[in-house]
Amino acid sequence: MLGEGIIKGMAETARNFVGSYVTKDRLTTVQYPEERLPQHQAARNFPFLVFDGKDPELGLRCVACQICEKECPPQCIYIVKSKDKKPDHIGKPQFYPAVFDIDTSVCMSCQICVEVCPFEAIKMDTEYELSTTDRFDQLLMRKADLAKSNEYYQQIHPTEASEVDARLNAEKAKAEAKAKAEAEAKAKAAALKAAAPQAAPLAGKT
Amino acid sequence: MSNALDQIFVTLKHAIVAWFPASWQGLVSALITVAAIIAVFAGLFALTTILERKGLGRIQNRLGPNRVGPFGLLQPVADGLKAMTKEDIVPRAADHIVHFLAPLALVVPVFLALAVVPIGRNMAAIDIDAGLLFFFAVGAATELSVFMAGWSSRNKYSLLGAMRAIAQMISYEVPLILSAVTVVMMVGSLSPVKIVAAQAPDGWMPGWHLFTPWGFAGFLLFLTAATAESNRSPFDLPEGESEIIAGYYIEYSGFKFALFFLGEYIGLFAVSGLAITLFLGGWHAPFAFLEWVPSYAWFFGKLLGLIALFIWIRGTLPRLRMDQLMNFAWKFMLPMSLVNLVTAGVWHFMGAGVARWLVCGVLVAGPYFVLGRSLFEGQKLSKRTYRYAD
After folding, report:
1. With bands split at pLDDT 50, 70 and 90, how would you rate the model's confidence at A202?
2. DSSP bridge pairs for A94
3. With an 8 Å Cβ cutoff, are A6 and B373 in contact?
């Protein structure tokens, strides 16, 4: 019959109209600045530098090896290697970046810098509100802007960060065990040396 | 008390007019009426745009605009400011004079049409005997403006949209007027004021023409034709975005576009006001014991109800195809409104009683089923099969 479909359709839209006031689940709108959806773990936007502990200067994992700078397809990373060295997380003296700049306007969020980094020092951020009022100075991120703590990394990519932490801790434990073994070996050698002197002076003199 | 409240605007106008010397009074009275109509209906236009956007949003399970002002109620102000600050672009090849005049040629007649609609007791701007004729004559002028806009823009899409609009508006003008003629036949007058007076509540019975078989059919026909006449969904082919971008609107920007928009909505109010006058009892209350509510409140309540209905329809129905539109106009609307004329005559001459309800009911329902079925004739509706996609 003519008009049957119209009435059915009108009933459906009326149900939607009333339902949108009654059931909140119907409304899928997220009112963005006030409401935010939680970020997905796999979200990625822009790289940042991870540091351990409290001090971003001391704890920075980056050793200024410049692999990321060379691999970066749009060439948005600029690194100047330090002259001196500082101990890394396992206590080995390493270089550190005196300057580490990334240009936000050039970065294409490809994550290649993260893939190539052998030190787990550079990771992808989920921060997306990067707009600024100045397109030269504020879009160029300096080392101080890029350095973010390991806790923050844990927060935005929990699964990935715990894997990284486990690996680093294993490395550290191995290094510690090695250092301990070395120290023991040294101590043994020293003990041997200490035991030897009775004979040695003679030998030395002869 | 209730009478004073009912007539408050009339007495106010008389009081203001009395301040002026006698030779000025006619002019001042006319100016006050015109200013009031323009202010009230332009305000209603602003309100309708926000209600429409919110209503359509809710129908689609969205929130609708809610950023400007409390609950987004100041959105029309923002829209108006945006329209005014936009650049007014006129195509180089356009006919400048006609291009400039087209929006004015739309807005002026639709406001003129509002003049004969009685919006309350003693509140028709001009009470002329041939008011209905005036309304349709002025309303037909909008077709001219649409074609002016389409032709002067020098744009193929504009011209296509204008041609569609002309075809559609002329086709639907016929059932629009024929369904209004039934009321003229029954009341025996072309004056909207007399038509409203004929629908006064009779004790417990509402006197609305809607509650008669011919009036019910006439109202539905009138409403359908009015939807088509004001280019609203599902008859919005002239401005079908997906087919011809925006039809005759394409080359209009800034405030000229806003004027077109205004004209379209004021036209909708005018034709809804006429539907109220003809079928829904005008400013009369449905029952005599509700007459204490001011007459203009009834009129604007009914108007808002019809606007809500139009928004609801827009949120529901998809756009028709051109051939469907024409088939519907000439194969269903026209015969149906002709049959309705006969029904009204039968109703008039049969005298009161149950028999005329039965006969007129059959006279309305029978052709509806027959004509409705004939619309689907020759249509094979089956599930579409895909050769490669399945």
Report:
1. low
2. A86
3. no
**B313 Cβ partners below 8 Å, 6+ apart?**
A10, B227, B232, B233, B234
Mapped onto helix, strand or coil, the DSSP state of residue B207 is: coil
Distance CA B300, CA B9 (A): 15
Q: Of the candidates B213, B97, B91, B108, which has an alpha carbon nearest to the alpha carbon of residue B154? A: B91
Beta bridge partners of A140: A103
User: How far apart (Å, rounded) are the C-alpha atoms in residues B160 and B237?
Assistant: 10
Around Cβ B109, how many Cβ atoms within 10 Å?
A: 23
Q: How is residue B360 written in tokens?
A: 């007129």
B282: amino acid identity, one letter: G
Domain annotation for chain A: domains and CATH numbers = 47-163 (3.30.70.3270)
Residue of A nearest to B58 (CA): A17
Mutate to test the interface with B, among A8, A15, A20, A25 (most CBs of B within 10 A): A20
C-alpha dihedral sign at A168, A169, A172, A174: negative
Lowest mean per-residue pLDDT among A5-19, A93-107, B9-23: B9-23
ipTM of the complex: 0.78
Question: Which chain A residues are within 8 Å of B368, Cβ to Cβ?
Answer: 2
A133-183 pLDDT, tens per residue? 888 888 888 888 888 888 888 888 888 888 888 988 888 888 888 888 888
Distance between CA atoms of B347 and B355, rounded to whole angstroms?
A: 10
pLDDT digits (tens, 9 = 90+) for B301-343: 999 999 999 999 998 988 888 888 888 889 889 999 999 999 9
The identity of residue B56, as a single letter, is L
- The pTM of the full predicted model, rounded to 2 decimals, is 0.80
| Residues in B touching A10 (Cβ below 8 Å) | 312-313, 316
Domain ranges for chain B: 2-376
